[in-house]
Specification:
The complex is a heterodimer of chains A (about 325) and B (about 120). With about 325 residues, chain A is α/β, with parallel strands linked by helices. Chain A has one domain (about 25-330): Alpha-Beta Barrel (TIM Barrel). In chain A, about 40% of the residues lie in helices and about 15% in strands. An eight-stranded parallel β-barrel of chain A has the order 1-2-3-4-5-6-7-8, surrounded by five helices. Chain A is globular and about 60 Å long. Chain B has about 120 residues and is an all-alpha fold. Chain B has one domain (about 1-110). In chain B, about 30% of the residues lie in helices and about 0% in strands. Chain B has four helices and no strands. The radius of gyration of chain B is 15 Å and the shape is globular. The N and C termini of chain B lie far apart (about 40 Å). The chains are: A alpha/beta (about 325), B mainly alpha (about 120).
């Protein structure tokens, strides 16, 4: 069987258009309020419709959607292919680029290749090790590390490859990165953020963090050191179904540690699903109260309408305008 | 001569720092901790996978190389401590197994790609 290369009519999921370019939204807190980005779940097959199902759920509530790069060190539809699909479906993609699987030539090619399709938001990261995935026998690459990848992307945005060979016109990239405020050495994490900012990062999607004190300390140090508002902080909030997911994350996801009382609070609740949501809502409210935090990055593992509920409970504006409204304002 | 120098360097640095002979030594700016012993060979600080107890994401039996580097760099003289935050350029893989001493003297270890531009 063949899959359609364009979104089928019944898969057109996004109503209206994104409320603005990610760079513009992050640059002006007064005008735009908190910015929401979301992680698109990895897809393996099923054509554009498979992506459309996720985008339909996420795009009305997210200003931009991450196209992941073999998350958890498992092979999936590639970051570039996903980003193109997300864009075709009417949402704004962020191209995640990880250092684990590709050397510098391939990383540069992916970034300029996506830019050819109008995908300009890039999020650079080291990537989980191959041992975290289901093909641990694979060769790990790490030809560049993430600060070097950010600098390489900056060079592309300035009009040349790492070699110095010209790119004309230069792709107008908006470069970001990730950081983990809850992983040792805590005191150093903001300095690493500063290094990434110097290399060219303008936003940091922060790893899921179940230590609010560490997140608060990171945000305060980021403010005091001038990291913010130079870069926009987007702490990640995970939407989970219950305590099993918490136990899985703390045991298996590199760099995430969840204190036992937090897990027990969800586990022992009369309605664990609701308790997991309440936990996420508390985390989101706390994160948004911190200095330099420009919004949230949502990792939705519930695959239901929780993201809509979260946005509503936080009192955030719609990420996409409804088509009717568009028609009225024309 | 170059080969002899590389052999001597390896004999000296392997037992002390587990030197991997990358040929572009940065030990002085990384708290005398070799970043090439990081399983991901990261040159610019720890990844986000460091475990709660400070162990390496890849090999839980070892402490994160960059955690050690950070702690040790705090005990270094001020100028070297500051260099810890330098953005170190990508490894030049052509220098593998050559002497970093020779490359330091010739300036070869400071050659960066033409497109490696100053801070953004």
């Amino acid at each position: 069987m063949s899959y359609p290369s364009r979104p089928p009519a019944d898969a057109a999921p996004v109503t209206g258009s994104p409320r603005g370019d990610l760079a513009d939204l992050l640059a002006d807190p007064a005008a735009h309020g908190p910015v929401i980005t979301a992680e698109c779940p990895a897809v393996d097959s099923g054509g554009i419709s498979a992506v459309a199902a996720h985008v339909a759920r996420l795009a009305p509530h997210a200003d931009a959607i991450n196209a992941t790069d073999n998350p958890a060190a498992r092979a999936h539809v590639s970051n570039v292919a996903m980003a193109i699909a997300i864009k075709q479906l009417g949402a704004q993609p962020i191209l995640q680029v990880a250092c684990r699987d590709k050397n510098r030539l391939a990383l540069e090619a992916d970034i300029v290749g996506a830019a050819l399709h109008g995908i300009t938001a890039v999020c650079c990261m080291t990537g989980d090790d191959v041992t975290a995935g289901d093909e641990p026998e694979a060769r790990r690459v790490f030809d560049l590390d993430s600060p070097q990848l950010i600098r390489a992307a900056s060079s592309l945005a300035k009009g040349c490859y790492l070699s110095g060979r010209a790119l004309d016109p230069a792709p107008p990239l908006f470069i970001g990165a990730v950081e983990n405020p809850a992983a040792p050495p805590f005191a150093y994490r903001v300095r690493r953020g500063l290094k990434k900012a110097a290399a060219g990062a303008r936003f940091l999607q922060l790893q899921i963090c179940y230590h609010p004190d560490r997140l608060a300390e990171f945000a305060e140090l980021a403010r005091d050191s001038g990291l913010t508002p130079r870069v926009a902080l987007l702490p990640t909030i995970a939407l989970l179904k219950g305590s099993r997911a918490l136990r899985y994350m703390t045991a298996n996801v590199p760099g995430i540690h969840i204190p036992e009382p937090v897990i027990e609070r969800v586990e022992n609740a009369a309605d664990p699903g609701e308790a997991a949501y309440r936990l996420a809502l508390e985390q989101a409210e706390h994160a948004l109260s911190l200095p330099g935090v420009r919004g949230l990055h949502i990792a939705d593992f519930r695959h239901d309408d929780t993201i809509a509920r979260l946005r509503s409970d936080l009192g955030l504006p719609a990420a996409h305008s409804a088509p009717d409204t568009d028609a009225l304002t024309v | 001569m170059a080969r002899l120098l590389a052999t001597i360097e390896h004999v000296v640095k392997k037992p002390i720092w587990d030197c991997r002979m990358c040929g572009q030594c940065v030990l002085h700016s990384t708290g005398l901790t070799c970043p090439m012993t990081c399983p991901k060979q990261l040159r610019n600080g720890p990844c986000g996978g460091v475990r709660e107890d400070g162990a390496c994401e890849v090999d839980p039996s070892m402490t994160c190389v960059w955690l050690k580097a950070h702690n040790r760099s705090e005990r270094m003289p001020r100028t070297l401590r500051k260099e810890f935050d330098d953005l170190r350029p990508p490894v030049d893989n052509r220098l593998q197994d050559t002497s970093s001493w020779a490359n330091l003297l010739s300036g070869r270890d400071r050659v960066v790609p033409d497109g490696w531009q100053p801070d953004a």
